[in-house]
Amino acid sequence: MKGPQRRRRPVWCSWHDGLSDTAFLVRVHDGAASGPNGGLLYACARCREQYGLTPLTERAT
Ligand SMILES: [Zn+2]
Questions:
Q1: 11: which residues sit within 8 A by CB, 6+ positions away?
Q2: C-alpha–C-alpha distance, residues 47 and 3, integer Å
């Protein structure tokens, strides 16, 4: 049996185009990147460090 061991479910990192369970929402300050989320994209921990992205502190429950 599988238990709910993972608190976070993988989300799509828009920077390396792949799923990651360390991804957080970041705000993109590029007008051309305005998507359905209004410039909010998910970036994983590695991409945030590489590109100097600041994750939003919003907590979705
Ligand atoms: Zn990534």
A1: 19, 20, 21, 23, 42
A2: 29
Looking at the DSSP bridge assignments, the partners of residue 19 are 12
pTM attached to this predicted model: 0.65
Whole-number Å distance, alpha carbon 45 to ligand 1 midpoint, is 7
Mean pLDDT of 1-5: 61
How far apart are alpha carbons 7 and 51 in whole angstroms? 26
Q: How far is the CA of 47 from the centre of ligand 1 (A)?
A: 4
Distance 61 CA to ligand 1 centre (A): 22
CA-wise closest residue to 35 among 22, 44, 26: 26
